[in-house]
């Protein structure tokens, strides 16, 4: 980032000073960085973030690198595409899948994160704490589903899925001990693993937004 390095870090520090509810560790994780990455920038342990790192941080904050340097923290939104949040997905809580909304509509709309295209994307809101600390209650998950099945790519990954009773879950999906069944794994060690579950479909989570970064349209 050459001569803009100091200005970017200064702007980043000003952003967190102005938004005390936003945690640097949460932003780091959402940007795909080590949770301590931004903290190290702010304390001077990392003096030169790469351009792509700065862009990823800015994207999570729904800003541009230039806005952070200029300390212009008016988040983008009005010109950005939106995605409908179709319903809730259970992370410990029991949630029935809701298909009551026409295509493109839902319980509310959120600004689509710049990291993904809104085309063919479905969004759901996490209810429950079985996936903490990966997904907090209120986190918005984005996924795409092309067919009604459990594709090979879903095995071993955290997915949004529907069981044969019509309940929607967010869990890590693993092959079950009996043919045609699956184990749904929780991240939270206090939550139980669900064994012998029959699924209608599963779709890997493509992107997630922590509650503090959800921007309703």
From TrEMBL:
The keyword Ribosomal protein does not apply. Keywords: DNA-binding, Transcription, Transcription regulation. Residues 27-68 form the HTH cro/C1-type domain. One of its GO terms (molecular function) is DNA binding. Pfam families: HTH_26, Peptidase_S24. PANTHER family: FELS-1 PROPHAGE TRANSCRIPTIONAL REGULATOR, PTHR40661. This is Helix-turn-helix transcriptional regulator. The lineage of its organism: Bacteria, Pseudomonadati, Pseudomonadota, Alphaproteobacteria, Rhodobacterales.
